[in-house]
Amino acid sequence: MNNLRDIDVDNKKVLVRVDFNVPLTQDLEVKDDFRIKAHLETINYLKDHNAKIILISHLGSPKGKDLSLSLEPVAAKLEEISSYKVKFVDETLGEKVQQAVNEMDNGDILVLENLRFNSEEEENDSEFAASLARLADIFVQDAFSVCHRNHASVSSIPKYLDSYPGFLLEKEISALDGVIKDVKRPLIAIIGGAKIITKTSVIENFLNKADAILLGGVIANTVLQFKGIYGNEELRDRDTYQAIKDIDFDNPKLIVPMDGIISKGNYSRVGSVDSIGDGEEVLDIGPETIDYYKKIIKKAKTIVWNGPLGKVENEIFSKGTKAIVEAIAEQDAYSIAGGGETVSYISEIKKEEGFNFISSGGGAMLDYISGKDLPGIEALNKHYEREN
Ligand code: 3PG
């Protein structure tokens, strides 16, 4: 890959893909600024070297323009934490954007509106990518956490512009490569959260690489349903069924909760997963599961964690995740955590020190460690090969 430190960015327009996909409060204020801070090293460097900095990002998964997912509050937060003046334009492309870019002085910072307000972003539309590229002289990819997406600002801009990895991207790759190249065993992957469809291949890859995979969250519930343990319900969502049907659920490395905090309406109870009745759902792992997972964690030498094991936004259902975070923090192993909700939770209970590396990526981190090629990194490598 090219190196940003080797080029002269003075007076150059630099388009930087960041990941400002941060949680917002109901009042549309930034709830957790970890991801914004993570980009400061790149932004500070470009500012100190007199570049004109144009920041592009997605926020959430809007279908068209949705002002509750505007990047305006994120731009304001960046201004607050960096103490630089940050200008925001409520368009991603077009005349208004071009005019704002034309008016930039060296060291100015401009944030454009949410890339995903335009369907072309997720469709990886070439003309959309080329138009974004035309705004600048240089492209910097700093959004490691979205590098697993085959989207226009990830895979295609490097086809049209001289492209470089940002410092956050470099830092992520070097930390994660450290784990992959010299993995200390046992390697345990803990996978929770909600998005099982996007984690199917990760689970499959980890079944080859890891010594155990501990599941929690909605993902575990889906697997329990699939295995017929969670009542006798058929999987309601056929897409999910199609996506996960090839996973080897009988592999003994794949460990699912044996009990949980089972809830319906206003009540909740502790019970084994085969006792779940109609309309009940599992909102946290139970005490037996916590003990069992802790025993496995106690033997681990490398731990990779993504995704809460329960509904952590409600304290009643956060005990399982908290116990697992504490067990990881106490264990003498190389530990990595990543993912929006995961990182927010670690910071909420102030356990950052308990991890060797906190990745800004969730799905991207899991994909990378499990051995998948990330389109965003491939695009930078291809650009480098073409240029050299
Ligand atoms: C993330 O939160 O993992 C990244 O911002 C990517 O978001 P996505 O899962 O909506 O593509």
How would you portray this structure in words?
The protein is of the alpha/beta class. The chain has 2 domains: about 180 residues, Phosphoglycerate kinase, N-terminal domain (Rossmann fold, 3-Layer(aba) Sandwich), CATH 3.40.50; about 150 residues, Phosphoglycerate kinase, N-terminal domain (Rossmann fold), CATH 3.40.50. The chain is built from 16 helices and 15 strands. A 6-stranded parallel β-sheet has the order 3-4-2-1-5-6, with helices on both faces. A 6-stranded parallel β-sheet has the order 9-8-7-13-14-15, with helices on both faces. Strands 11-10-12 form a 3-stranded antiparallel β-sheet. The longest helix is centred in the middle third of the chain and has 15 residues. The protein is globular. The mean pLDDT is about 95. Bound molecules: 3-phosphoglyceric acid. 3-phosphoglyceric acid binds next to loops.
Tag the structure with descriptive keywords.
388 residues, alpha/beta, Rossmann fold, 2 domains, globular
Topology:
Elements: E1 13-17, H1 34-38, H2 40-48, E2 52-56, H3 72-82, E3 86-89, H4 95-102, E4 109-112, H5 119-122, H6 126-133, E5 138-141, H7 152-156, E6 162-165, H8 167-181, E7 187-191, H9 196-209, E8 212-215, H10 217-226, H11 238-244, E9 254-255, E10 259-264, E11 267-272, E12 281-285, H12 287-299, E13 302-306, H13 319-330, E14 334-338, H14 340-348, E15 357-359, H15 363-369, H16 375-387
Parallel strand pairs: 1-2, 1-5, 2-4, 3-4, 5-6, 7-8, 7-13, 8-9, 13-14, 14-15
Antiparallel strand pairs: 10-11, 10-12
Helix pairs in contact: 12-13
